[in-house]
Structure prediction request, 182 residues.
Amino acid sequence: MATFNVPTREEVSENNQAIFDNLQKGLGFVPNLYATYAYSDTALGDYLALQNRKSTLKAKEREVINLVVSQVNECEYCLAAHTALGKMNGFTDEQILEIRSGKATFDAKIDALAKFVKDITINRSKPSQQVVDNFFEAGYDKANLVDVIIVIGDKIISNFLHGTTQVPVDFPAAPALEAEIA
Prediction:
């Protein structure tokens, strides 16, 4: 089995070194999964551009998507990172666990979003008509739908990268979901 070490600044291209420097300034560190993108000369910059693109979605809504997709794909790295980011965006520990299970009883609009994201991810791009209808009835529009799908794709990329490389998680571990919550 191939082993993936986390590339250091000295081991990546000049372009990626500049991105590492910006991440170090902005975050205080270079997350291991971001560093892993730097095996490619262009993937890290491409991924960050995708992740930071303008969107019709609020940061909290993007975190809902990130948490649900990462739970469906069982990505411990992304669950850890987005649990921390979810807290930074105002979700409680209990809300984060509920979101990860694919629902949000504390907010009807976020609930419709979480249910849509779980359904489309589990059903590999083919959500039920009911969850689509509920998504629109909750107040989302077609632009939001496109942006949700973009964020799902963004998160699947990271989930797959971590699932393949298994680089060490450098965020506090996300708590396990209890069977009755999932």
Observations:
- Residues 14 and 41 are 9 Å apart (CA to CA).
- The chain has nine helices and no strands.
- The mean pLDDT is 96.
- The radius of gyration is 17 Å.
